[in-house]
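Here is the promised in-class demo. Please do not try to memorize the tokens; focus on the logic of going from shape to residues.
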């Protein structure tokens, strides 16, 4: 049984998907405090946020007998794949952009320990990207029976990174206040996009309102913020 997940509020009646989005936006100072907290705790910002997403979903969906969370770590594979391809425009255009590495994380009672568990997996991925890419497809095939039942009905976190490095914050006379990327699910899954832009952290939920109510998603964001506050007080 999956340790966390967001149950559907409704059974879909409408045939057409109806995408919705809500966000938890942090100020520059709040973002800086979170980054400092992640450094003081020694876990890093990504594992810290990932742990808060899982614990919040665990609370929202009701605790289960299982403490195992099945998911995939989504990572940038473009630079690694370029090493394998000839230096041509067509090869780069067809190169794999992202990778998916299946993992199972133990959800601890203590959110800091869960963040440490995530850190171990992220560190392992960072040190072994090339061998992981080489074995990714067979591992995904073996994991599909578990992921099909759990991950594909749960949350899909995507750590997009710092968009300020990719997009300018000013276009001549116009200053960009917000810029975000999102994927809209057409089923019961909830997409969670985590990004920074202009030194401000944003956690954005995207969902199909045929399955999830705005109130449920607002409560999920509140629980995420509460979990991050708990870590800041650790």
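The designed amino acids, position by position:
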């Amino acid at each position: 049984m999956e340790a966390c997940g967001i149950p559907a509020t409704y059974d879909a009646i409408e045939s057409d998907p109806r995408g919705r989005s809500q966000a938890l936006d942090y100020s520059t100072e709040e973002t800086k405090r979170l980054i400092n907290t992640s450094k003081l705790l020694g876990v890093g910002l990504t594992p810290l946020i990932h742990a808060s997403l899982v614990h919040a979903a665990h609370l929202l969906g009701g605790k289960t007998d299982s403490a195992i969370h099945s998911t995939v770590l989504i990572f940038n594979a473009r630079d690694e794949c370029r090493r394998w391809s000839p230096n041509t425009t067509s090869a780069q255009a067809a190169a794999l952009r992202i990778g998916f590495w299946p993992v199972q994380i133990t959800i601890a009672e203590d959110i800091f320990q869960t963040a440490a568990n995530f850190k171990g997996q992220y560190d392992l991925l960072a040190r072994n990207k090339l061998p992981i890419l080489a074995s990714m497809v067979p591992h995904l095939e073996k994991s599909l029976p578990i992921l099909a039942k759990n991950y594909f009905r749960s949350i899909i976190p995507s750590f997009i990174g710092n968009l300020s490095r990719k997009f300018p914050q000013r276009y001549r006379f116009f200053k960009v206040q917000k810029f975000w990327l999102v994927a809209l699910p057409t089923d019961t899954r909830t997409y969670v996009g985590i990004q920074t832009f202009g030194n401000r952290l944003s956690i954005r939920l995207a969902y199909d309102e045929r399955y999830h109510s705005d109130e449920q998603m607002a409560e999920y964001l509140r629980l995420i913020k509460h979990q991050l506050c708990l870590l800041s007080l650790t």
